Amino acid sequence: MTENADSSLVPLILGLATDLVQAVDAGVRDRGFDDIRPAHGFAFVRLAPDGAGVGEIAAHLGVTKQAASQLVDELVRKGYVERRPHPTDARARLVVLTERGWACTRAADEAAADAVRPWAELLGERRIRELREDLARLGPSGRIRPVW
User: Fold this and answer.
1) 18 three-class SS
2) Among 18, 45, 115, 127, which residue's Cβ finds the most Cβ atoms within 10 Å?
3) Under 8 Å CB-to-CB from 9, ≥6 apart: which residues?
4) What digits encode the pLDDT tens for the residues 68-87?
5) Bridge partners (DSSP) listed for residue 95
6) What pLDDT shows up at residue 8?
7) How far is CA 58 from CA 16, 62, 69, 78, 142, in A?
8) Beta strands in 47-131 (DSSP E)
9) Which residues form the HTH marR-type domain (predicted)?
10) Long-range pairs of 25-28 with CB within 8 A, sequence gap ≥ 24
11) Residue 139 DSSP SS3
């Protein structure tokens, strides 16, 4: 592959990722969660299924503990998460999704499925399966987090 072909992949992949985040965000809003931003969704990824401490959320999002704490405060006010005693650290609090948070997560999953459905229609099921396998080899961590 030529150098030009390698570099042409970058804007295509980044553009597709941007389009996907925007489509999921729009789908979540269309499903009645219009007080959520994509950054909240990235935090939800870390909170599911068992919750996390503010420090873990900060590390996942790549922000300071103070910024993560402010984000958690906002999500508590909106009813998406709650703080509970940490099961193994008496000094810490565990942040967990509430039923509203889980409902929003399900809405995001539905919106994501809607966003990629046209890909299968365009490329076909076999090519989508191959693409999924290729992407799993290229990005085996599967980390879903923002890159600020």
Assistant:
1) helix
2) 115
3) none
4) 999 999 999 999 999 999 88
5) 52, 83
6) 86
7) 26, 6, 8, 19, 18
8) 81-85, 93-97
9) 6-140
10) 25/111, 26/111, 27/107, 27/108, 27/110, 27/111, 27/112, 27/114, 27/115, 28/104, 28/107, 28/108, 28/111
11) coil
Read off the tokens for 83: 């703080």
CA 11: distance to chain centroid? 20
Q: Two tokens at 97?
A: 């999704």
CATH 1.10.10.10 for domain 3-138, yes or no, is yes
More confident residue, 136 or 100: 100
Three-state DSSP at 148 gives coil
Phi, psi of 96 (to 5 degrees): -130, 155
CA-wise closest residue to 84 among 59, 43, 54, 57: 54
Asked if 144 and 45 count as a contact pair (C-beta separation under 8 A), the reply is yes
Average pLDDT over all residues of the chain: 91
Closest by CA position to 20, among listed 2, 38, 4: 38
127-147: pLDDT as tens digits: 999 999 999 898 877 677 776
CB contact at 8 A, 51 and 97: yes
Higher pLDDT, 81 or 148: 81
